[in-house]
Write a structure and sequence with these properties.
The chain has helices spanning 18-24, 43-52, 72-81, 105-122, 134-144, 168-177, 193-201, 231-241, 246-260, and strands spanning 2-7, 30-35, 56-60, 87-96, 126-131, 159-161, 179-183, 207-209. By secondary structure, it is an alpha/beta fold. Helix 2 links the parallel strand 2 and strand 3.
Length: 264
């Protein structure tokens, strides 16, 4: 069985065939998907979506590129809606310094920290988006989420570094802090050397796979709309890199995903 730990099926690119795609997922052994919110406007839709589809779970959080309009009312909404039994995480949240027109770093940090505090209050794992902000991400996680002492902060329930793009060495530091590493399409790219190295060195019980669909399609579908149907290519590449059978790798990744989201 396959668990897509990070997907965006509410994206407009699925408007014309969303039901058809979702209903076809089990043909490729995809049995669970986590639908990830990126904007506060997604919150109610996420809850409706996971109520409609049995195989879906959900997360609530706001992507760093759109935090500039957030208020405490949005934080209250996260706390209220997270009582839903199929809301399994807070995210995606984090820092993104890649584009010049993103919110100012201090604004991003403010709302990243606030959402981490909520995650600990609710005892939910977090889905971390971090691009071009490795040091700041680690510093904030140590101070406001995981903690720097041997004993984690009250309410800490781990999480995943989504679409991991940093070094293998840094991946091990995140793992030491209690986080999983999420791998997606780039691990299949010919020029995806860093992702391939990460896939080799990360302890197998700390790896999960994701699509980030409709983005990040793996080879041989790079450049086209992505879906959970393509997870088999990512799993196959990781299995090859780790010198395991496809079936063995699939089972390991599935069980890791259940632990990440505390799903029995």
């Amino acid at each position: 069985m396959i668990f897509d730990t990070h997907a965006h099926y509410l994206d407009h690119r699925f408007d014309e065939d969303r039901d058809n795609i979702i209903n076809s997922l089990k043909t490729e052994n995809v049995t669970k998907v986590c639908e990830i919110s990126a904007d506060a406007d997604d919150f109610i839709q996420i809850v409706d979506h996971i109520d409609k589809y049995d195989m879906f779970y959900g997360s609530l959080g706001v992507h760093p590129s759109v935090v500039d309009k957030l208020t405490e009312d949005h934080m209250d909404m996260i706390k209220k809606l997270s009582t839903h039994k199929k809301i399994v995480a807070i995210g995606e949240i984090g820092l993104d310094y890649h584009f010049d027109d993103d919110p100012e770093p201090e604004v991003q940090k403010k709302w990243f920290i606030r959402q981490l505090e909520i995650a600990n209050e609710l005892e939910l794992p977090v889905i971390i988006h971090s691009r071009d902000a490795a040091k700041e991400t680690i510093d904030i996680l140590k101070e406001y989420h995981r903690g720097t002492n041997k004993e984690p902060k009250k309410g800490f329930n781990g999480g995943v570094i989504h679409c991991y793009s940093y070094s293998p060495e840094l991946a091990l530091e995140f793992i030491e802090m209690g986080y999983y590493i999420g791998l997606d399409g780039p691990v299949t790219f010919k020029n995806g050397k860093k992702a391939k190295e990460v896939a080799k060195v990360v302890p197998e019980d700390r790896l999960v796979v994701e699509t980030d669909c409709p983005y990040m399609s793996p080879e041989p579908h790079r450049g086209s709309r992505n879906s959970s149907l393509n997870l088999k290519y990512i799993i196959a590449e990781i299995a090859n890199l780790r010198e395991k059978s496809y079936e063995e790798m699939e089972e390991i990744l599935y069980n890791n995903s259940l632990r990440l989201y505390n799903i029995k």
